Amino acid sequence: MTTFFKRASVAVAACALILAGCATQPEPPRMAGRSPAQPPIARIETPEPAGLVAQASVFEAFMRHARRIDPAFGGPSDVAQALQTGASHEPHELEAGMIAYAALAALQEPRFVAAARTGGSDLARRIAADPQAALILPGADAAEARARGALYAEGAALSGEGEKVKHAAYAIQRQAWAKAKVPDAAGRLSRVKRLSTETYQPAREDPAELQMSLAGAARRGGAASPVVARGVALAALSALGEARQGRSLMSEPRTTSCLHMAKLNLYQCLASAGPNYEDVYCLGQHAMIDPGQCVVEATQARQAMGPQIRSRSQATRGASAGGMG
């Protein structure tokens, strides 16, 4: 996992073009979740989705690998490997991937795609300047619901798995290895910081995993958040063949702050941690729950503030609350 996040190659992006598409029939709104019975994503004939696929894969791949962290830790090496997985994302790249992922979900709405394609260069300019302009297109409500549901499912799943890892920090406290000090704690923190700056390296399975992730996400109702609006706008620009004009849409201030705060939380927690079980706590709370919650909040019209930096007493005392007996 140490080289998991490096820049996606053009070749992989191109071969993944098939993923960005629209469903053949619209569906009624429903709550977010995963539905394996949904049909595969159909191809959408525009020149831009391959770039969106490459960016969205950054987001989907990190969320997938992080939520698969096994809370059944058997020793320090398991904890160290899990920390590498949880740290392996660069916040700016992850945020851009989140918005691209929302755009691919919106592109599954055929009525919205058809409406966007008729807008021409004037519509592209208006959307690039103001993403809200995309929300008045026919089918935009359904495209929003798809984008919101896809993001919500990913964020909620990661936070839920993070809770299991956090619980493991309490469960392992009576084991001798878990109470032992982390060896080379300074080196461990340096490695985590380095991994947090590395960019995405695609894997062979990423296109299929991205397809399954998008096909399995259900719609979710609600008002458009800034991130969802950016995703829908980017989808419209892609349908117009003008996705390059959407570069300014790839970040949103509150989400940027939330993801960076989650990283700072992780660094501070690890800098304060002593025994291995405290590293498990830091992993569950700050490498999984916090970024997962950032994604969930990114689907909400009124976002709460991102995770707050915790002091040593808050971070490590929380993991010790179960007691050693």
Pick out its properties.
14 helices, 60% helix, mainly alpha, 325 residues, disordered N terminus, disordered C terminus
Provide an overview of this structure.
The chain is mainly alpha-helical. It is built from 14 helices and no strands. Helix 3 packs parallel to helix 13. The chain is elongated, with a radius of gyration of 20 Å. The N terminus and C terminus are likely disordered.
Contiguous uncertain segments of 5+ residues = 1-48, 308-325
User: How many DSSP H or I helices?
Assistant: 14
Helical proportion? 55-70%
User: Strand share of the residues?
Assistant: under 5%
Order of helix and strand elements from N to C terminus: HHHHHHHHHHHHHH
Radius of gyration: 20 Å
N- to C-terminal distance: 36 Å
What's the story with the biggest beta sheet? Answer: none
How many runs of DSSP E, i.e. beta strands? 0
Average pLDDT score: 83
The global form is elongated
- Give the structural class: mainly alpha
Put the structure in a nutshell.
With about 325 residues, this protein is mostly helical.
Q: How are the elements arranged and paired?
A:
Elements: H1 10-15, H2 49-67, H3 76-87, H4 91-106, H5 110-117, H6 120-129, H7 140-171, H8 176-179, H9 185-195, H10 206-215, H11 226-239, H12 253-272, H13 276-298, H14 312-320
Helix pairs in contact: 2-4, 2-7, 2-10, 3-9, 3-13, 4-7, 4-11, 5-11, 7-11, 7-13, 12-13, 13-14
